[in-house]
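ping. complex inputs:
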Amino acid sequence: MSFNKFIFVYFVCGFLAVNGGAVFAQNSTISGYVKDAETGEVLIGSRVYSDSLKIGCNDNQFGFYSLTLPNGTHTLVYSFVGKEPERRRIELKESIELDIRLKSRENLATIEVSGEKKSQESTEMGTIDLSMSKVEALPVLFGERDILKVAQLLPGIQSGSEGSNGIYVRGGGPDQNLILLDGVPIYNVNHLFGFFSVFNEDAVSKVKVVKGGFPAEYGGRISSVVDINMIDGDMKKLHGEGSIGLISSKLMLNGPIIKDKTSFMISGRRTYWDLISRPIINQMNKGSNFKTKGGYFFHDVNAKINHIINSKNRIYLSTYLGDDRFFLDEQSGLSNDISRNGGGLNWGNKIVALRWNHKFGPKLFLNTTVTHSRYDFETGFFSQQGNLDNPSSKYSFDYSSRVLDWGGNMNFYYYPNPNHQIQFGVGETYHTFSPGASRFQFIEDYNLDIDLVYGALKTYTHEFFAYIQDDFKINRRLSANLGVHLSNFYVQEKLYNILQPRAAFNFSINEKSSFKASYSRMAQFLHLLTNTSFGLPTDLWVPVTSSVPPQIGDQVSLGYVHELSKGFNLNIEGYYKTMQNMIVYKDGASILDFGKNWENLIEIGNGNSYGAEILFEKKRGKTTGWVGYTLSWTNRQFENVNFGEKFPARYDRRHDISFVMTHKFNDRLDIGIVWVYGTGNAITLPLQQYETLGDDNFPSETVPHVVRNNYRVPAYHRLDLGINLHKEKKWGEVVWSFGVYNAYNRQNPYYLTLEDEDFDIEDLLEGESFSFGKKTLKQVSLFPIIPSISYSFKF
Amino acid sequence: MKRETIYFILLIAFSSCVKDLALNSEDLNSKIVVNSIFENGEKIELHLSESVSVIENVSTPVISNSKITISNESGDLLGESSSTSFYLSNFNTEAGQEYFLNVSADGFESVEAFAEIPPLASLEGIDTSIFQTQQKIQFDVSIDDNPLEDNYYSIKIKFLSTDNLISTNSIISFGQKEVVVNGEKSGTQFFFSDETFNGEVFTFSGLVDYFEPFLGWEYYIVEVNSLSRDLYNYRLSYYNYIRAQELPFTEPVQIYSNINNGIGIFAGYNVFRDTIWVN
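pong. complex structure:
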């Protein structure tokens, strides 16, 4: 039997089995939402459990739960981390709807019952739920809290260069992460050249990171899923929070529009370096023929409205708008003889998502989403001479890239009985790619002499998917999540069909520990074409085409989970991943290679990654945190790069360690400590030079001996410290946060460069030898010890 | 004490973000560099030098304490030399013959290489068309590709002027008739493989500058080179390197090497030359 037939037969038989069981047994279903008693918001990830029957369920990502039980009397425990568990005695004669509201715990430290989904009971592998409380307590660069920087502290997830938000998951590239904000993919998650992410922590309620063992519901990227949910907004009363920091300030408001019916959330953030520097620049320009304007800022807005139409229907409208802008304009000279030079760099994402939740009955739930996403990148420079309005000569260069998506999907959640949670759905996205259009203009003596546009062709594509998955219990000890995800991609009259099987198993050794195993195939129809020679955000999102095939990732992983006493958890996972059809620029290719389509500038090849991850975590108590360790190898191989030999990926990191700890002394004082260590990146650094043969077969020129990613930069390590002082006010709470980034002032490598050796004239006069033209290898670091302070408030 | 503490903190905070890094001694170890590209029917010329660290500003020294041996596929010694940095074989090369090179020198890891001269390109013919007004001449070079081999070609067009100087013309534009050729115009040559037309007759069209005959005996020389795969990769990567020097933001270029444990090139080619008289 072929694999496809096996999948079909499995799901048909499974469907009949689970429904047949439901028809003949005397069962009824209890369903509803678990909500926060204070705000009325749904609590995603809460648990419903029957102690006597030893069965239960978790709610879905919209807070909906459904549990089918034999008719009779049951005691159900509803729990959620940080909330007081609630026990309900229920007389079940027929299916009922029951919304539960959980109150906050009075004393978190003394209560040992966890409301979190238990990892040892779940088939999920390589999956971590990041609560915002983890993010809030940690020390951060410039005092700006960032969920992606916290994600980088988890084993298997590596940061890129110093301070950047690029995440590299199990050897994958930054393009291989599906980063979803309320279900909409975000293409560029960076503000300020990558030092901050676009996710404003105030507007985020929950983050789920999946590194392996992907459920069939996810597709479109091969290395990870970062699923971020925005806050829905308090249904009871108006709340707000904000902060004033060294770099930016932000404000978030949320509350009811119609009490218990409609709520909103709006959050805004802006940096103000440009505003602070403007008077200084103006002062410098005073009385000078040389005038400069310039600056950089980013701003973003998150907003969401959700409305409960009735007990069966609910809608959400959410949006994110963000922009980064850098500009420089310099003028010198007088009246009709002015020389003017300038340039700029802008990029930003705009997304909108409209969601409709519909409950067909106690066992079937539907989420329908319509999405729009747009990512723009523009850069350019110009130079002109003469009169400002009518320059005698002018040249300009502009470069732009855009991805525009319209999409929709329907996801069904079906709970036939406690042993099966079935999810299935379909979706379609219409992409318009405009990668790398360049425009060059040259004007002389008021005439347009040259106006050339390259690479302005758009590519239109359709991406369709359908999936089905069943998370079910095989017996008391063994459970599985089997599924299949089918992707179709239509581009340039070529249709790609890729069937992606997914399987995950959990074998419970006892109540506290389990073994896990998973296999998943993922397909990706986008590539990120990255220039390695400089760090500006000129990476191009390009689609699969008729000649550039989709990326395919296959991953197997094995794991062991153990819940220890006193809130400690141990999670060990090993993985092996292969990645097919990755792209890189060819040797010698340049993004400024005018006249060449990007498809002619790339090589297509493969990669692999394997390793082991250990996460030792303390989840409860006054002291929480984790120690993470990753041992990994990551390689790339391209037929025409490095002579076809395998070479280490730039972010191949043999050892990666993170130590994260927060301690709450009392309600007024808590501290955070982070220490990270990572093996140095592999970079291409010619270490030898040699004579080569020229055109006429005579030794001609000394050239560098280049070997791809041959040199390891020094290891990266850093200690961050933070302290938060909380003060209750009549209207709410204020927090003063003090932090030190890179507390022991480690000079971590940002980039290496070969420069002519410096010499001291006095040393020469004293007779010390010096060889002119000799070079030294220099390491440039970015961030020394950086103190930070921020003031935040909540009401 | 308070003041010292403040000074200390400021010193750390604003200390230089640039520092020198020392290279490991193994990174600085020199390698044997072999440079030898030879033509069918000619002697093998081989030049030995050593690589030097990129931090040194010295010319690459030759290696004179070497032992060089060249043997055939049967292991028979064809030629050897000691204590020289320049070797000229006492035999002439032959197409189809395999040559195995071994070079050892004190203080260096021994290196090995292998080379084979490909057979001559099978030419169907060369046609010319002169475009007087544009002062251009087009050469249509038809080659019958051998289906049983992976073939690599380069085409070069030279012009012999009236003052008896040979200059190599740049191929200004190029095109192909009937079949698509995936190639690269690099410097004065056009490089291509038979990947897209294996076993077919294909025609390469190259346009070069045309000069009116002055004394009536000017001529062009068309060179059709059959390159070994190693030489093809070497030439392309070299020209890629030269080209990359002229563009900003380029990816690093590795110049191809087929020298095991060392650097350089040891490869052969076969050339068909045709003289085209213009009068």
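Chain B has two domains: 26-116, 123-255+269-277.
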